[in-house]
Amino acid sequence: MDATSEVTFREMFRELPGRTTVASVVPVVLGLAQVLNGHLHGVPVTHTGAFAVVMAIAAVLVTQYHLVVFRRGKLQRSVFGDGGALGQKVGGGTDARADD
After folding, report:
1. What is the DSSP string of 21-79?
2. CA 36 to CA 31: how far, in whole Å?
3. Helix (H) or strand (E) holding 15
4. N or C: which end of the chain has fewer CB within 10 A?
């Protein structure tokens, strides 16, 4: 991977389906469920709609962040090998193995 290539949402979803779903899909579904719940209980659409918009914006921002972390991890693996720099994982944590 060269420094100018971009990663796609689809590529990230293939490698990290759980994280991608929680970051991108769950907030949008939660916002839509809240709009439906508000409609069923007679809550003004401005309240539930505002919540849905905020959740959609949060999903976009969190997904962008995860794409950056994913791209950084792929770039580190291509430069430093499978272990990354100093044994870091894609999520930013360090390797828990002790050097004997």
Report:
1. IIIIIHHHHHHHHHHHHHHHTT--HHHHHHHHHHHHHHHHHHHHHHHHHHHHHHHHHHH
2. 9
3. helix 9-15
4. C
pTM: 0.71
Sign of CA dihedral 83, 88, 92, 96: positive
Could you read off the pLDDT of 61-100 as tens digits, one per residue? Answer: 999 999 999 999 988 888 888 765 555 555 555 544 444 4
pLDDT tens-digit profile of 36-62? Answer: 999 999 999 999 999 999 999 999 999
- Cβ(76)–Cβ(12) below 8 Å: no
The torsion region of residue 13 among left (phi > 0), alpha (psi -120 to 50) and beta comes to alpha
Domain spans, the chain: 9-87
On whether the CB atoms of residues 37 and 48 are closer than 8 A, the answer is yes
